[in-house]
């Protein structure tokens, strides 16, 4: 049982075999069941199962007669004493010729009980061994119209089979059975009666589509595989060709993007310059505007004629006041740039016209 569990844990391999007609023509390649044909041979298991199978073939009918079963010997051969010889009670004793056999064989059964799983696993191991040696042949069917040994030999030669051959037949292969029956190197067995011993005792195992155990799937031939690979490579080449124009287009797009980025940078510089100019203009507008203080009503009444007579002098004075205001504004801007606080609009002191200035103007007139 432990041997069976070890065999069940083994990894199975994929097995493919060629499929022929009975005339030797190749029909293709198929993948057979890896559970049946893809195992590693378990030698101890196969030995145990084959031994049991051979033992079961024994009839166990051999038999010998004991001294009690041999006829005759009922009388004592000679007297007990006085002869100088060893005493004897019957001439059918084992030491006498014609007497019984001591401890001889008797009819018995040599059959050994073998679990069904072990028997099946041993058969799978034997088939896997033949497949690994390349000695398994798969035939589509036997196309014998009439039983003829010559046609059977012709089929075997076309398939290239030599040595001892085991042909597994189905229930409908009557013509094939009668055609191969007269060949000494060919053994015939029904598919349901196949054993590990039958497989191991022959060099070649021949199955048909009907008698092949397990499931089988068709495998694409080499030409198809090569053509498919060629189409795949051609598709890759086409994809590469499509990628090249896209790469050049992407290069042109990058160049145009570089140009546009340079244009954008230049436009950004221009925009920044314009913004600086606008900021300067706003700063000038926001700067405190200083105007000349209007003279009081008293002063206006005291010198009305002087204002009318000397408009040029007042204009000059106004210009001087505006110039002084501009210089103060420039000084405030410079102080802000340096970080020094400048006086605000409320703190600007505007010189007012005094009475002395008015008197000086009157004297000048």
Describe this structure in words.
α3 crosses α4 and α5 packs across α6. By secondary structure, the chain is α/β, with parallel strands linked by helices. 50% of the residues lie in helices and 10% in strands. The chain folds into 2 domains: 173 residues, 3-Layer(aba) Sandwich (Ribosomal Protein L4, Chain: A); 85 residues, no CATH class. β1 and β2 form a beta hairpin. The protein is elongated. A 7-stranded mixed beta sheet has the order 5-4-6-3-1-2-7. It has 12 helices and 7 strands.
Concise structural overview:
The chain is built from twelve helices and seven strands. The protein is α/β, with parallel strands linked by helices and 365 residues long.
Structural class: alpha/beta
Which percent range fits the helix content? 40-55%
CATH class of the largest domain: Alpha Beta
- SSE pattern, N- to C-terminal: HEEHHHEHEHEHEEHHHHH
Q: Whole-number average pLDDT?
A: 75
Question: Which band does the percent of strand residues land in?
Answer: 5-15%
Arrangement of strands in the largest sheet: 5-4-6-3-1-2-7
For the sheet with most strands, the description reads:
7 strands, mixed
The N- to C-terminal Cα distance equals 145 Å
Question: Going by CATH, what is the homologous superfamily of the largest domain?
Answer: Ribosomal protein L4/L1
The number of E-state strands comes to 7
Number of helices: 12
Query: Which stretches are low in confidence, meaning pLDDT under 50 for 5 or more residues running?
Result: 222-235, 287-298, 303-313, 337-351
CATH fold assignment of the largest domain = Ribosomal Protein L4, Chain: A
What count of domains describes the coordinates? 2
Nearest-angstrom radius of gyration? 63 Å
Shape: elongated
CATH architecture of the largest domain: 3-Layer(aba) Sandwich
């Amino acid at each position: 049982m432990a041997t069976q569990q070890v065999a069940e844990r083994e990894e199975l391999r994929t097995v493919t075999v060629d499929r022929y007609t009975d005339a030797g023509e190749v029909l293709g390649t198929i993948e057979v069941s890896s559970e049946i044909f893809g195992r590693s041979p378990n030698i101890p298991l196969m030995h145990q199962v084959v031994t049991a199978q051979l033992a079961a073939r024994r009839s166990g009918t051999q038999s010998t007669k004991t001294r009690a079963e041999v006829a005759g010997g009922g009388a004592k051969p000679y007297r007990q004493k006085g002869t100088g010889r060893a005493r004897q009670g019957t001439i059918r004793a084992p030491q006498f010729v014609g007497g019984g056999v001591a401890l001889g064989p008797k009819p018995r059964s040599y059959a050994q009980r073998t679990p069904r799983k072990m028997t099946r696993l041993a058969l799978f191991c034997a088939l896997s061994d033949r497949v690994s040696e390349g000695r398994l042949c798969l035939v589509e069917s036997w196309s014998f119209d009439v039983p003829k040994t010559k046609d059977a030999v012709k089929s075997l030669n076309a398939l290239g089979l030599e040595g001892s051959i085991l042909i597994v037949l189905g229930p409908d292969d009557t013509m094939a059975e009668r055609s191969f029956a007269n060949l000494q190197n060919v053994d015939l067995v029904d598919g349901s009666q196949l054993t590990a011993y039958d497989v191991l005792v022959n060099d070649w195992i021949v199955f048909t589509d009907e008698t092949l155990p397990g499931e089988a799937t068709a495998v694409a031939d080499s030409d198809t595989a090569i053509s498919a690979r060629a189409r795949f490579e051609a598709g890759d080449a086409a994809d590469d060709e499509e990628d090249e124009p896209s790469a050049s287009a992407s290069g042109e797009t990058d160049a145009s993007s570089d140009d546009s980025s340079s244009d954008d940078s230049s436009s950004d510089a221009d925009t920044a310059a314009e913004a600086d100019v606008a900021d300067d203009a706003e700063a000038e507008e926001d700067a405190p505007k200083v105007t000349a203080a209007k003279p009081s009503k008293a002063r206006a009444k005291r010198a009305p004629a002087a204002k009318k007579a000397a408009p040029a002098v007042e204009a000059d004075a106004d210009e001087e006041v505006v110039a002084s205001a501009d210089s103060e504004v420039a000084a405030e801007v410079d102080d802000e740039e340096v970080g020094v606080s400048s006086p605000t609009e409320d703190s600007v002191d505007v010189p007012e016209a005094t009475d002395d200035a008015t008197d000086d103007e009157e004297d000048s007139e």
